[in-house]
Structures are given as structure tokens and as C-alpha cells.
Amino acid sequence: xxxxxxxxxxxxxxxxxxxxxxxxxxxxxxxxxxxxxxxxxxxxxxxxxxxxxxxxxxxxxxxxxxxxxxxxxxxxxxxxxxxxxxxxxxxxxxxxxxxxxxxxxxxxxxxxxxxxxxxxxxxxxxxxxxxxxxxxxxxxxxxxxxxxxxxxxxxxxxxxxxxxxxxxxxxxxxxxxxxxxxxxxxxxxxxxxxxxxxxxxxxxxxxxxxxxxxxxxxxxxxxxxxxxxxxxxxxxxxxxxxxxxxxxxxxxxxxxxxxxxxxxxxxxxxxxxxxxxxxxxxxxxxxxxxxxxxxxxxxxxxxxxxxxxxxxxxxxxxxxxxxxxxxxxxxxxxxxxxxxxxxxxxxxxxxxxxxxxxxxxxxxxxxxxxxxxxxxxxxxxxxxxxxxxxxx
Length: 392
Known about the structure:
The chain is α/β, with parallel strands linked by helices. Helix content is 41%, strand content 14%. The chain is built from 14 helices and 15 strands. Helix 3 packs parallel to helix 11 (274-284), helix 4 (96-107) packs parallel to helix 5 and helix 4 crosses helix 10 (252-265).
């Protein structure tokens, strides 16, 4: 089947966080939004059909956890990632971020230090600080346009008593797909110092050729025993509004603690549409995913080439996965507020300003590539023209 990802679908006026909050967030309702991580593509036909048929029933009641749903998840993980997961390891959550928060509560105590690797998805900071824990920052090193882990510094944080690590794999916003050697070295340190891991693998299906996502817990039984893996079909198949996510927890004791906290918080109910959409995604929509990945990779290459030609001072970090492009704009010499002024007021576009991902994200921008090529081109044209106008 062929898919038309070039179609620009009208999303304004649809209660879209991305398209309908321009005035509130950026001071202009007409800002072109390439920030929040959802796609501007229509979902796979099988998902649209499944949700439509479900809607036609007309009674949107409390929803059970069918075996087909569990089988769809475990089948996908085995087929796509070579990970043999037992259905009993799965716990449902309304999203990956709530799962991160619950995991922090379950695996640490107030005042404990929790490691993250900045620049990183901003809710990592929130789930640590808002639960009364302390951020232990292990900054990634940008070297030759590619991020790598600082294992020496990481080990010092573990020696200093950090209890938990939040891993972003693949990495948002840096686009790194961590390889086996990197993950094994990380795992060795965690096992050595008794540090548990919460691995956010929501972008795990969005990986470009030449790279492979390896679930941390799949690497060894020992790592499975200390890891909570957070995943969802939401980023992969563009269904974040259906609030369907899950954790994979092989360790029985940790899983019991996690499930009890989910129950105590009363956030374990399944979205009415969630199971149907997930089943359709994981069992009938793989060709759509392969096609959308090809399109996003071409968008990445287009954006990199466009910036090189029209704004060489902006240096993209070549993403290995995700549909996000992380761009180093420090050579423009603009402050955080000046970058926002350039985007929102002068170019009338909204990329994500990088300091929200940590201090070492300042001077960077994150661009959402999951949109029609013409939309991406228009945003880049506006941005580069506005940046050029500042220097003339």
C-alpha cells in the first residue's frame, strides 16, 4: 500500500495542542508549529478503521484488558526487537510520563539522587523534582556531531550514592540510538553499584537503517531484574491522544510495587479506544511504519542539507532515530530569549528552544520532522530568512 505523507491535513480548530495554542504559548496564533512530538500524518488505515468501528458502538464504557491486546504487544516486541516478553510482565499506564513518575516513587525515597543524561526530555526533571528527589545530572558529551556517554562521571554519581537512573533510549532530543557496547557498559555500572534503571523506550520503533534499538532489559537476565521499561505505540503510530502506554517489569517484586502504586493512584484504567488501536497498530500497520520511517529519514536529510546551504552556522546533530532533529545554533550567538524572539516573532515558527532539556541544551533547537515536506521546507525557509536578516 502507498501512503500520502505529503498531504497537509488541517489541524487548527481540532483542539490540537500543537496547532491551537499558538497565541497562548508563542504570542501568535499563526506561528507554524514544529515542536510537540506528534505527527502531522494521518494514522495507519487499520488504526483509523479500528477506532471508527469502536466509536460506532455508541457506549464508551469501562474497558477490559483483552488477551489480544497483550498478545499484540508481546508479538510486536518479539518480532520487531527480538525480545521475548511474558504478558505477566506488562502493566498499563495512561502514558510514559506518568509511568516515570510512579517508577521514581516506587524505586526511591524523598531526597534520593536520580541520574539523568542531559540534554534530555524535560519531564525527566519534573518527575524527579516534583516527587522530592534530587537531580543528578550526567551530561552527555557532544563530539564530532554525535553524543556519547561520560562513563567516568556517571560512575562517580553512582559512587556518590545515586539510587536510580532514568535512561532515554533512543535519546530525545539528541537522536542517539545507543548500541550494545554502550548499553552493556552502562548496565555493568548499574549492577556494580546497585542502581536501578527506568528506561524510556517510547521512540524505540523509530530507528533508521544502520541502527538497531536494543531494549536494555533484553540484554541479560541481570539487567532485566533491575529495569522498568516504559513503552507505548503512541509515538510510533501517532496515537498519543488515546493515552495508551505500558511498562515491562520482569522483576516480580518491583512489578508488584509498581502495580500497587498504580492502583493507589487510580490511574490504571484503559482508554476505551486504546486496546483496539494498539491491536491494529501492532498487528496490521507495520508497512505504514516502514513507509513513514522512510519519509522521516528523507525529511531529516532534506533539513540537514537545507540548513547547510542556507544557514551553515546552524549545525544539526545527525539523528539515528526518533523524528526529532537537534540543531546546534550556538554559533548564531543568540541568547535563549533572542532565539525565542527569532522563532516566534520574526520567523513565526515554533521549534522547541533547547534549554528546557537542561543547561547544556541552551543554544540548541529541536525540530519535529514528522510533517509534510512542504511544511518542513516552509518552516526552514522562514527560520533561515529571519536569521539571515539579523546579520545584514
